[in-house]
Amino acid sequence: LETQLDEIVKAAQAQRLKISPDFLKRRAQLRRMMDLERQIALNLGQTSGTISTLPNDIQDEVRQFVDRAIDLSFLRAAMLRAFVRTNETVLQEELNTIRGRYERTTGPAKADIELLLLAKQEQLEAFQRLRNDLVGTEAQLDAIESFLNTITYGQSLTVGSVRQQMIRLKTKIEARRQSAEEITRLVNGLER
Known about the structure:
Layout: H1 2-14, H2 21-27, H3 29-43, H4 57-85, H5 88-104, H6 109-153, H7 159-190
Helix pairs in contact: 1-4, 3-4, 3-6, 4-6, 4-7, 5-6, 6-7
Protein backbone atom coordinates (compact mmCIF):
# COMPACT_ATOMS: atom_id res chain seq x y z
CA LEU A 1 0.00 0.00 0.00
CA GLU A 2 2.82 2.39 0.85
CA THR A 3 4.38 1.77 -2.57
CA GLN A 4 1.06 2.47 -4.30
CA LEU A 5 0.61 5.68 -2.33
CA ASP A 6 4.17 6.76 -3.21
CA GLU A 7 3.40 6.17 -6.90
CA ILE A 8 0.21 8.21 -6.61
CA VAL A 9 2.10 11.10 -5.01
CA LYS A 10 4.79 11.01 -7.71
CA ALA A 11 2.18 10.92 -10.49
CA ALA A 12 0.26 13.80 -8.89
CA GLN A 13 3.45 15.85 -8.50
CA ALA A 14 4.41 15.14 -12.11
CA GLN A 15 1.07 16.65 -13.16
CA ARG A 16 1.56 19.52 -10.70
CA LEU A 17 -1.47 18.51 -8.67
CA LYS A 18 -1.69 19.73 -5.10
CA ILE A 19 -1.44 17.03 -2.40
CA SER A 20 -4.13 17.71 0.18
CA PRO A 21 -3.41 17.69 3.93
CA ASP A 22 -6.22 15.13 4.23
CA PHE A 23 -4.33 12.76 1.92
CA LEU A 24 -1.23 13.08 4.07
CA LYS A 25 -3.23 12.43 7.26
CA ARG A 26 -5.00 9.44 5.76
CA ARG A 27 -1.76 7.98 4.52
CA ALA A 28 -0.96 6.77 8.03
CA GLN A 29 -4.55 5.79 8.88
CA LEU A 30 -4.18 2.07 8.16
CA ARG A 31 -0.99 1.92 10.21
CA ARG A 32 -2.83 3.58 13.13
CA MET A 33 -5.65 1.03 12.88
CA MET A 34 -3.21 -1.87 12.85
CA ASP A 35 -1.49 -0.42 15.91
CA LEU A 36 -4.86 -0.17 17.67
CA GLU A 37 -5.63 -3.79 16.77
CA ARG A 38 -2.27 -4.84 18.21
CA GLN A 39 -2.91 -2.84 21.37
CA ILE A 40 -6.35 -4.41 21.82
CA ALA A 41 -4.91 -7.92 21.31
CA LEU A 42 -2.11 -7.36 23.80
CA ASN A 43 -4.30 -5.80 26.45
CA LEU A 44 -7.53 -7.76 26.08
CA GLY A 45 -7.11 -9.90 29.18
CA GLN A 46 -4.37 -8.02 30.97
CA THR A 47 -5.85 -4.71 32.05
CA SER A 48 -8.27 -3.76 34.74
CA GLY A 49 -9.86 -1.21 32.42
CA THR A 50 -12.26 -1.17 29.54
CA ILE A 51 -10.53 -3.63 27.22
CA SER A 52 -10.38 -6.43 29.78
CA THR A 53 -14.16 -6.35 30.29
CA LEU A 54 -14.78 -7.38 26.69
CA PRO A 55 -15.19 -11.04 25.75
CA ASN A 56 -12.46 -12.73 23.72
CA ASP A 57 -14.70 -13.10 20.65
CA ILE A 58 -14.41 -9.33 20.26
CA GLN A 59 -10.81 -9.91 19.19
CA ASP A 60 -11.98 -11.87 16.15
CA GLU A 61 -14.39 -9.08 15.28
CA VAL A 62 -11.63 -6.47 15.63
CA ARG A 63 -9.41 -8.49 13.31
CA GLN A 64 -12.21 -8.67 10.74
CA PHE A 65 -12.70 -4.90 10.90
CA VAL A 66 -8.99 -4.32 10.38
CA ASP A 67 -8.97 -6.78 7.47
CA ARG A 68 -11.83 -4.80 5.94
CA ALA A 69 -9.91 -1.57 6.54
CA ILE A 70 -6.99 -3.07 4.61
CA ASP A 71 -9.30 -3.89 1.68
CA LEU A 72 -10.85 -0.41 1.80
CA SER A 73 -7.41 1.20 1.92
CA PHE A 74 -6.33 -0.61 -1.25
CA LEU A 75 -9.63 0.31 -2.89
CA ARG A 76 -9.09 3.94 -1.89
CA ALA A 77 -5.58 3.84 -3.38
CA ALA A 78 -7.00 2.51 -6.66
CA MET A 79 -9.57 5.31 -6.73
CA LEU A 80 -6.91 7.93 -6.05
CA ARG A 81 -4.76 6.50 -8.83
CA ALA A 82 -7.74 6.81 -11.19
CA PHE A 83 -8.24 10.43 -10.16
CA VAL A 84 -4.61 11.25 -10.86
CA ARG A 85 -4.74 9.54 -14.26
CA THR A 86 -8.14 10.90 -15.26
CA ASN A 87 -9.14 14.52 -14.98
CA GLU A 88 -12.83 15.52 -14.92
CA THR A 89 -12.11 18.73 -16.82
CA VAL A 90 -10.33 16.79 -19.56
CA LEU A 91 -13.21 14.30 -19.75
CA GLN A 92 -15.70 17.17 -20.06
CA GLU A 93 -13.62 18.82 -22.80
CA GLU A 94 -13.38 15.54 -24.69
CA LEU A 95 -17.14 15.11 -24.38
CA ASN A 96 -17.71 18.63 -25.72
CA THR A 97 -15.36 17.97 -28.64
CA ILE A 98 -17.16 14.73 -29.52
CA ARG A 99 -20.51 16.48 -29.19
CA GLY A 100 -19.32 19.14 -31.66
CA ARG A 101 -18.16 16.46 -34.10
CA TYR A 102 -21.51 14.71 -33.73
CA GLU A 103 -23.41 17.89 -34.59
CA ARG A 104 -21.26 18.47 -37.71
CA THR A 105 -21.41 14.87 -38.95
CA THR A 106 -24.04 13.49 -41.32
CA GLY A 107 -24.72 10.12 -42.88
CA PRO A 108 -23.65 6.72 -41.60
CA ALA A 109 -20.67 8.12 -39.67
CA LYS A 110 -23.07 9.92 -37.33
CA ALA A 111 -24.06 6.57 -35.75
CA ASP A 112 -20.40 5.80 -35.03
CA ILE A 113 -19.86 9.22 -33.46
CA GLU A 114 -23.04 8.73 -31.41
CA LEU A 115 -21.59 5.52 -29.91
CA LEU A 116 -18.41 7.39 -29.02
CA LEU A 117 -20.46 10.21 -27.50
CA LEU A 118 -22.43 7.77 -25.32
CA ALA A 119 -19.24 6.02 -24.21
CA LYS A 120 -17.62 9.31 -23.20
CA GLN A 121 -20.77 10.36 -21.30
CA GLU A 122 -20.68 7.07 -19.41
CA GLN A 123 -17.01 7.59 -18.60
CA LEU A 124 -17.71 11.06 -17.21
CA GLU A 125 -20.65 9.78 -15.15
CA ALA A 126 -18.49 6.95 -13.82
CA PHE A 127 -15.84 9.45 -12.78
CA GLN A 128 -18.44 11.49 -10.89
CA ARG A 129 -19.82 8.36 -9.16
CA LEU A 130 -16.29 7.39 -8.23
CA ARG A 131 -15.81 10.70 -6.45
CA ASN A 132 -18.87 9.92 -4.30
CA ASP A 133 -17.61 6.38 -3.70
CA LEU A 134 -14.30 7.78 -2.46
CA VAL A 135 -16.14 9.86 0.12
CA GLY A 136 -18.07 6.77 1.26
CA THR A 137 -14.93 4.65 1.46
CA GLU A 138 -13.13 7.28 3.53
CA ALA A 139 -16.15 7.53 5.85
CA GLN A 140 -16.01 3.77 6.42
CA LEU A 141 -12.31 3.91 7.18
CA ASP A 142 -12.98 6.72 9.66
CA ALA A 143 -15.79 4.69 11.28
CA ILE A 144 -13.54 1.65 11.71
CA GLU A 145 -10.77 3.76 13.19
CA SER A 146 -13.23 5.46 15.53
CA PHE A 147 -14.57 2.08 16.65
CA LEU A 148 -11.06 0.80 17.37
CA ASN A 149 -10.28 3.98 19.30
CA THR A 150 -13.47 3.52 21.31
CA ILE A 151 -12.50 0.00 22.29
CA THR A 152 -8.96 1.03 23.12
CA TYR A 153 -9.58 4.28 24.97
CA GLY A 154 -13.31 4.34 25.81
CA GLN A 155 -13.91 4.79 29.51
CA SER A 156 -17.51 3.67 29.85
CA LEU A 157 -17.79 0.75 27.47
CA THR A 158 -20.10 -2.13 28.04
CA VAL A 159 -20.20 -5.37 26.12
CA GLY A 160 -23.69 -4.40 24.92
CA SER A 161 -22.60 -1.00 23.61
CA VAL A 162 -19.60 -2.51 21.82
CA ARG A 163 -21.80 -5.15 20.22
CA GLN A 164 -24.30 -2.49 19.07
CA GLN A 165 -21.50 -0.47 17.51
CA MET A 166 -20.18 -3.61 15.84
CA ILE A 167 -23.58 -4.46 14.38
CA ARG A 168 -24.04 -0.94 12.97
CA LEU A 169 -20.54 -0.93 11.53
CA LYS A 170 -20.92 -4.44 10.07
CA THR A 171 -24.15 -3.43 8.34
CA LYS A 172 -22.48 -0.43 6.73
CA ILE A 173 -19.41 -2.45 5.78
CA GLU A 174 -21.49 -5.19 4.17
CA ALA A 175 -23.37 -2.64 2.07
CA ARG A 176 -20.05 -1.10 1.06
CA ARG A 177 -18.52 -4.49 0.25
CA GLN A 178 -21.30 -5.16 -2.25
CA SER A 179 -20.53 -1.93 -4.09
CA ALA A 180 -16.76 -2.42 -3.95
CA GLU A 181 -16.77 -4.70 -6.99
CA GLU A 182 -18.64 -2.06 -8.96
CA ILE A 183 -16.17 0.58 -7.81
CA THR A 184 -13.28 -1.59 -8.94
CA ARG A 185 -14.89 -1.94 -12.37
CA LEU A 186 -15.33 1.85 -12.52
CA VAL A 187 -11.68 2.43 -11.62
CA ASN A 188 -10.50 -0.08 -14.20
CA GLY A 189 -12.75 1.48 -16.82
CA LEU A 190 -11.42 4.97 -16.14
CA GLU A 191 -7.80 3.85 -16.31
CA ARG A 192 -8.13 2.46 -19.85
